[in-house]
Amino acid sequence: MQTEDATPLVPGQTKLVKAKTRRGKRFLESRAPKAIEDAKRALFLYGNQTSQIVKDVLTDLYQLKRLEAQKFTRKNENIRPFEPGGETSLEFYCSRNNCPLFVLGSHSKKRPHNVVIGRLFDFHLYDALELGVEEFKAIRDFGAAGTGAQLGNKPCVIFVGEKFESVPALALAKSLLLDMFRGEPVDKINLAGIDRVLMAVAEGDTRLQLRQYSIRFKKSGTRIPKVALTEMGPRVAFSVRRYRLPPSDLQQDAMKQPKLGKKKEKNVSSDALDGKVGRIYMPKQNMDTLGLSKYKGTKRERREGAREAAEARKRPKAAKAAAVADGGGDAE
Fold first, then answer.
1. Which residue, among 37, 36, 39, 38, has the nearest Cα to 183 in the 3D structure?
2. Cα distance between residue 132 and residue 208, in whole Å
3. Which residues contact 103 (CB under 8 A, 6 or more apart)?
4. What is the DSSP letter of 118?
């Protein structure tokens, strides 16, 4: 039975890992499932063989997601997401680096300049899409076109073409690209912070264009500025190859949504008319120290009372002095 301070098993692991320190406990809690997930990290890695074009494509894609990504520079053998058992090493690497997304680059005679984009659920391979690079122009070839874009800002993602809704492979590509570049989940977006556009165009059933533009605001004579788009790279033309859809049982588990309970409000209840009734607790007030308004009449009464009190204090003294004087006369 899994405990609160234990992390789930990963491929190749035979026992649960329990936290021994507070720091370890915080680390395991950060890896645990959350009702509202953080930004999805992506792992960029190479297969057994690769080409310079594939390296350049993965480098530019990594630049687009650098804040939420991890990149391997060495070649990795026996990573074949579309073959049985070929995903074991991939699941292990993604689990160790906390990356539910991956981009795998490879090259062979049968599938030249190959790029595989995929997702994992519970660090098990969920789905994957295989693309072939046909045309490519790197970010560095566009010069200073993208200097205005800031790292970490959310891009505006646009999909052009009805094939993204009707062709299963392109529908999967749309879902993967949205997961890849959505960034941190937020409630509000500052429109001034949207400084780039990522555009995906479906050309037929088996071709996909991916381009990126920088947004520049120019004067228009009105309150609404004129928007100008400048291509900043990368520019990639993909051909759609193989794709892998998730198993039905894994898809059913992934689609489950937790029921977020309402936060309980203290001292608040509902009445018969479904209205809110609140209970307020007030501290006891000391009426003796309560500040009140001072009127002239009350001031006159206080002066008279003070005068009478002073006269009352003088009377005993005068009577005592008279008694002493009378007593002295008798003694003589």
1. 39
2. 10
3. 42, 43, 44, 45, 58, 61, 62, 115, 116, 117
4. E
Which CATH number is 92's domain given?
3.40.50.10480
What gap in Å lies between CA 72 and CA 51, rounded to an integer?
A: 15
Provide the domain count of the chain. Answer: 1
DSSP one-letter string for 257-311 = ----PPPPPTTEEE-TTS-EEE----PPP-GGG---PPPHHHHHHHHHHHHHHHH
Smallest Cα–Cα separation from 141: which of 232, 236, 238? 232
Residue 284 tokens read as 């006891």
> 254-263, pLDDT tens digit by residue?
888 877 777 7
Query: What is the distance between the alpha carbons of residues 200 and 215, in angstroms, rounded to a whole number?
Result: 16
Greater confidence (75 vs 289) lies with 75
**Mean pLDDT of all residues in the chain?**
84
Closest CA to 216 of 197, 198, 235, 199: 197
Q: Which pLDDT band holds residue 187 (cuts at 50, 70, 90)?
A: confident
**H/E element holding 244?**
strand 235-244
User: What residue numbers bound the domain in which 190 lies?
Assistant: 39-244
Q: Which residues pair with 158 in a beta bridge?
A: 199
Q: Quick check: is 111 in a domain?
A: yes
Task: Report pTM.
Answer: 0.72
pLDDT digits (tens, 9 = 90+) for 14-37: 456 678 898 888 877 777 767 677
